[in-house]
Amino acid sequence: MIVVSDATFKSEVLDSNIVVLVFLNAPWCGPGKMVTPVVKEIALQYYGCLKVVEINTDENPLTASHYKVRSIPTFMIFMKGKKVDTVVGAVPKNALINSLSKYL
């Protein structure tokens, strides 16, 4: 999982040639801590056809504000520089994979 910032979001996410799962989280977020191992598993499972990045919304408020993120954890799926899907909350692994599978 790659850690991105407001400054690197464009180059790592919007300019990516493969599908990107953006994990918006904060260090104090309990549900985010619970789902982090699942996100890491997905990153390994789909390595090469999916890029998984994490952004700390406390330290990088511009990205969260731009995409109108109101709660965390939030997952956004990007394809060819466009947001194509959003999943809000600490969802089970299979629910996240079901959302991703439409784009892989």
TrEMBL record:
SUPFAM superfamilies: Thioredoxin-like. It comes from the Bacteria. It holds the Pfam family Thioredoxin. Keywords: Disulfide bond, Electron transport, Redox-active center, Transport. One of its GO terms (cellular component) is cytoplasm. Residues 1-104 form the Thioredoxin domain. The keyword Hydrolase does not apply. InterPro entries: Thioredoxin (IPR005746), Thioredoxin-like_sf (IPR036249), Thioredoxin_domain (IPR013766). PROSITE patterns: THIOREDOXIN_2. GO terms for molecular function: protein-disulfide reductase activity. Belongs to the thioredoxin family. This is Thioredoxin. It comes from Aphanizomenon flos-aquae WA102.
